[in-house]
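Re: [help] complex structure
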Amino acid sequence: QSALTQPASVSGSPGQSITISCTGTSSDIGAYNYVSWCQQHPGKAPKLIIYDVTTRPSGVSNRFSGSKSVNTASLTISGLQSEDEADYYCCSYTTSNTVVFGGGTKVTVL
Amino acid sequence: EVQVVESGGGLVQPGGSLRLSCAASGFTVSNYWMHWVRQAPGKGLVWVALINGDGSNTNYADSVRGRFTISKDNAKNMMYLQMNSLRADDTAVYYCVGDFPWGQGTLVTVSS
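Output below.
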């Protein structure tokens, strides 16, 4: 199972909105609405911020939103803040009854 | 409070075994699919294994199939990962994850 494709880095200025893409295939992202996103600050454990494509866990800022179109999922961060500077990973359940992750995207706040 | 706490990591020699535990509180593990995910030093997240709510469905990444076994004890609200025939490339922080707050992980180091 190949990894999902994410851009290596995305940057934006405070207050702007940025979108991170996560491209898969009809065997993973395109097959189910089981895409999750997590945020990881340097030296910290990853934190779940989106599951089932669009659902935010309790306590996660509504500045984070998820969406999906065909085989590509997206994470949008609106009103970018310095604390959003971190690595972001997408993952998806697959038709092989496995889970596949993206390679991660480093978000830089300019 | 909804949380999971991983434990059981440590230093082990190549070929050795470890059992990781994931203790859940604030939710019932029998209602959730759960996974082990690992992260080698300086690398990205990699899925290791999954188990469904009642434990009837399990699956593994090719790199660990036949060596690792995932299980649940719904009565104790726990999930486990039995790791045998450990190799140096199994060295990583292991996380217990699902549609709930993820834990801090437990470090497994395989080295002689």
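Chain A has a mean pLDDT of 97.
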